[in-house]
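quick one before i forget lol
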Amino acid sequence: MLHFNFLKYLLCLAVFLIFLSNSEIALSEDTTQVDIPTRYGLAAVLGSVFNPESDIRFVRLSGFIMWDYDRVWRHWAPDPLRFKVECTAGMTTAPNNRAMISVDMMALYYLEFLSNLRLNPFIEGGIGVIFTDFQVEDKGRIQGSRFNFNPQIGIGTDFKMDSGPTFFTTLRLQHMSNAGLNSQNRGVNSIVLMVGRYF
């Protein structure tokens, strides 16, 4: 049931972002285009598996590049929408040390109605592929592959301290499974905290 609910919420977020990116809302008469710069970021990632019940914890380093959404996907998109490609690498810290590497693509939408001079909240969602040098087992079912799909959703905010660099933090729900490509497909759900900065 938890696995189904997670995928249901992920699907709702994906439909919301697709709706935003394909909306036929008329553009205002002011067609002035603001040049949104490409951004780069680096973050520390802390995570913990919560389903199946497990003591697996992990740390990773994440780097990404983020563009204005319609610069990559050549159709109209709302101004607050961004697209980013993210790569992470790290390892589990408990119960054993095992490698984890992923590549993900994410859509990020800034909640401008909540923004102020210091905070710029956002929601994000996307999917990627992940390699884990471990396979979980739960009640006779196993995670049948070390290579899995990696859908995730999150909420976070950019924040700025005076005239210094801009930082960000994100809380994500992350799922790993092989989407039925292997007959054994025990999904793994994690909660992930990211803290980093833009360059």
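fyi The chain has one domain: 2-22+39-198.
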